[in-house]
Amino acid sequence: MSTTTTTSIHQTLVPTWEGNPPSDAVDQPFQALARGDRNGVLKLRGIPSFKDPYAKRQWIREHMAAAFRFFGKQGYGEGVSGHISVRDPILPHHFWMNPFAMHFSLIKASDMVLVDSSGYVVEGGNQAMINEAGFMIHSEVHRARPDAVAVAHAHSIHGKTWSGFGKPIEMLTQDACNLYGKVGVHAEHGGIALAQEEGRAIANALGKTNTAAILQNHGSITLGQTVDEAAFLFYSLEQACQSQLLAEAAAANGVVKKIIPHDVAQFTADSVQTPNNFYLEFQPDFDLIVAESGGKVLQ
Predict the structure, then answer these.
(1) Within a 13 Å sphere around the CA of 278, how many CA atoms are in the beta-carbon half?
(2) 38 burial level (CB within 10 Å; 0-12, 13-18, 19+)
(3) Which end of the chain is flanked by fewer CB atoms within 10 Å, N or C?
(4) In which band, very low, low, confident or very high, does the pLDDT at 17 lie, cut at 50, 70 and 90?
(5) Which of 219, 232, 217, 216 is CA-nearest to residue 273?
(6) How far apart are CA 233 and CA 219, in angstroms?
(7) Helix, strand, coil percentages for the chain (3-state, nearest 5)
């Protein structure tokens, strides 16, 4: 399989792109989202792959840092709550997490902490503490879902408010279809997750195929094959929860909601629910955060 090489913003990394260009005939919905030239030379490029696993590790940490800065800009932080984890590409059963009690908007790539399967900090990353509840949640989700490379969780205001109803979101908007058929509900809040049982219950709510779950009286959680996907889906779910709350307020005053019918929602979902698309959806914000930080987020 031939590859096309491009230079990363971070000059030490040279990612190659999947496919020729990516996903030639295996990701047609992704290619259908944009139009290039008549000869089909201009194509969308999705998730990069790496020949060097250490370059991939650095790329993961950079994109994690950007995801946290994005969460900070959106106001998803609340004290020490909220965490993102990503599987390490080199060490089996290890993953990267954010340091405990560091504001999302300050996080850089070098701040990421590497932990083992028992949640203990190991060499190779920042020597800092992590959130215990975060490990209990993320470790169980990673264990139950080997397809989930990244897991994102925060106590965003609209997500946690809607979670108080213990109900899934409705397909009120086209954007909500990013999550059609992919949102579970963890309907029994067990308090702060300082035991594995709560993490397992959250993993069960995600099931085998969901990319998101609403955690009753708690917040939201999303999964992705990249941290970019997990971050974008978290944002998409938060936006859907805000729309839902607004719609419920209007409906309480007699305004009838119009739900997108199944066939239309499924068609939209089939068009957008690909890892390449959700990775790409985050790239405008990634580029903006790199520019706004003067590249410091990559350090």
Answers:
(1) 28
(2) exposed
(3) N
(4) very low
(5) 232
(6) 14
(7) 40, 15, 45
Distant-in-sequence, close-in-space partners of 162: CB < 8 Å, separation ≥ 6: 169, 214, 241, 244, 245
Using an 8 Å Cβ cutoff, are 114 and 94 in contact? Answer: yes
For the beta carbon of residue 24, count every other beta carbon within 10 angstroms: 14
Domain residue limits, the chain: 53-298
Residues 6+ apart with CB under 8 A from 190: 197, 198, 201
Digit-coded pLDDT (tens) for 71-87: 999 999 999 999 999 99
DSSP 68-81: HHHHHHHT--BTTB
Digit-coded pLDDT (tens) for 171-226? 999 999 999 999 999 998 878 877 788 899 999 999 999 999 999 999 999 999 99
Give residue 238's region: left, alpha or beta (phi > 0; psi -120 to 50): alpha
| Helices (H), ranges, the chain | 28-31, 53-74, 132-144, 157-163, 196-206, 227-251, 262-272, 275-292
Rounded-to-integer distance, Cα 299 and Cα 107, Å: 10
pLDDT reported for residue 28: 85
Instruction: Please check whether residue 205 is in contact with residue 184, taking contact to mean a CB–CB distance below 8 angstroms.
Output: yes
Q: What is the CA radius of gyration of the chain?
A: 19
CA distance linking residue 297 with residue 299, whole number of Å: 6
The pairing of strands 212-215 and 183-186 is parallel
> What is the pTM (predicted TM-score) of this model?
0.91
| CA dihedral of 241, 152, 62, 32, whole degrees rounded to 10 | -60
